[in-house]
């Protein structure tokens, strides 16, 4: 894979491969049919996950201990030819193995192979299986529907095709050496109720024209409920567990923009051009900010070229387009003449009096940086997205809520596929809605945070996404001293542990990164040298078992069974021992490569061969294969890799902090490749955005002394409840109070994060509400105070996570406290107290008893 998978993507790929492995085994052994789905919100990278899965099918996956399927054939099916072409390009971009010549093939009308070939992905769309399509002429589907049968009876004569697509599929499925895997992209389409006439895709899945059903069906979509229902209705097909990606983890990853800023007129009347002028200024501002960011990061200034999308009504004339273009040009006279384009359904260039609006295919917009303003109508074709889209204007009426939310959902991908540290403005998209009012805008807001039932296309975000109706951008408070910011820099935060971790992969990834950034040019070589020394020590420590394993590799042991021809009784008649040939040795060496990783196995074999001139490479591989047979080796290597990675992170801590945002994020990712929480440093916020009005448009209350502030030194606190404000005011009234920080509620580099486990054992992340700073010029003390609601089911697990955090970092912080309101009184748990921590860790589900028992005290 050319891309490093996000944690949630790697977990989803692992679950998909597990389903595929079981499904393929059931097909080969018992001809059992299987189906399952992958569900992930728009922008989660479903195609990237699919690329990793397909690559594993063809060449294996060492990280997931997944052996390749030599007979794997993948049929990628959609109802849109353009989407197939786009997907093919994305798969090539994602995987170097899939970009090899001949791996990816679009099935055209001239396709006439006898059967589909293993190790290839074939792209097919529904139109090519329609009743008059050339690929199926001459076919007679075995369908009970008279309309379908009649349509084939009335078809023109076959076009001298040697075989139809149905024949090709039949030969493929019936070949015992092949396994046909069907990937159904946008799986919710074409899946009508089983009481209605079967669609083309259903006939393909269930079998038609004498063709057997597809053995393994894998549906991918943001919303797959219809697909799942259809598969459950099929007799004789096993439905495997669906793979569902948590939207909160997608949002956490930084792949999607955190904030959607909605702007709308406060008064009625024609304000179209006024808001379009404002939108153009927003586009100019975004252009300047991305330019400045690229310059500060020492990358190409055109790394992100912002785009504005203007959504027009379906019935739009040239006069309206001319008016829009003039408004944009008046606001931005320097805009280039070729900066305008359209993605209208008519697929044609539009000539205006003073401009040409060229047509462009939606999937190409991202790669045409000269296009700065894109005109659209309905929701753009499924699967399209444009990460550089920073500003959106819709002239559609409020009744078109679905169209608008669908198009906004296409604009939420982060341009750099990562969160920009501490900059809420660059992590947002601005949407101006001239024909909306506050109530309409609130409906969009609810849809885009995933809280409305009508989010049928999976465009809503997960926990952590915000929609802002009256945003205010704040910068570092000039009244806060450098010493307070230095105390902020020292605050500890933690990574979210992985379900499954590979310490050796983590160690080697760290070494590669250090070499790439020239912090240690020979780090990769040193890492493998260190691991080889671990293997030397392991073999010496387990010398007797190692020698035994070498002999086991060199021989093939078998058993002789005797069968009584009359009674059928089976008895053991003896055993045999034969010298292993080269092929048998290579098979065992291949197993060792999966245990040790291919690169370590190769390097250690070469090390052994160079060490003893009397032994050739085959003898060295025998020894490596022997090591792979010893169960203890994995634990030994992983423990050593975990220890060495920690030492290297400590050694290069200062150098890593001096790197760019992108490279620092990569080291945080590598550090997080562990089953244990890892300490990371916070980064200072640069631009903090907060809501300034309540749901009815009234100004929100503010407080001073926050680390981030507006021009008056204030910070809005309208999102705090009554007793959270009481905690804030109590802390501000304490002696030697200096400053406070409202910890962001989402995973970001400027948020203090604490991992905790939910009831299912999955790791989650919480961000305590407040950090307070007290002290004087000589000593500044930081305290974490979390007003902790008692009414939610996850209150106790989160409290345990905070207790573990206090156990680890208690010496670095003045106070770590959880506060809750119980029976009208604020109570506090001092988590730096070991007796309080013990009470929390041993508590049952009665959180109220904790706050009223001896472990608590009145909060004053």
What would you note in describing this structure?
The chain is of the alpha/beta class and 860 residues long. It folds into three domains: 7-245, Rossmann fold; 252-469, P-loop containing nucleotide triphosphate hydrolases (Rossmann fold, 3-Layer(aba) Sandwich); 482-495 and 682-858, no CATH class. It has 26 helices and 34 strands. The protein has a nine-stranded mixed beta sheet with strand order 12-13-11-14-10-15-16-9-17, with helices on both faces. β28 and β29 form a beta hairpin. α2 (46-59) crosses α3 (81-94) and α15 packs across α18 (598-611). Mean pLDDT is 87; it is low at 139-158 and 193-197.
Give the CA-based shape: globular
Distance N terminus to C terminus?
A: 55 Å
CATH topology of the largest domain: Rossmann fold
Helix content: 25-40%
Annotation, overall tally of beta strands = 34
Please give the domain count: 3
Give the CATH superfamily of the largest domain.
Answer: P-loop containing nucleotide triphosphate hydrolases
What is the radius of gyration computed over CA atoms, rounded to a whole number of angstroms? Answer: 31 Å
What are the segments in which pLDDT stays under 50 over at least 5 consecutive residues?
139-158, 193-197
Order of strands across the main sheet: 12-13-11-14-10-15-16-9-17
Strand content: 15-25%
**Mean pLDDT level:** 87
Sheet having the most strands = 9 strands, mixed
What is the top-level CATH class of the largest domain?
Answer: Alpha Beta
Second rung of CATH, namely the architecture of the largest domain: 3-Layer(aba) Sandwich
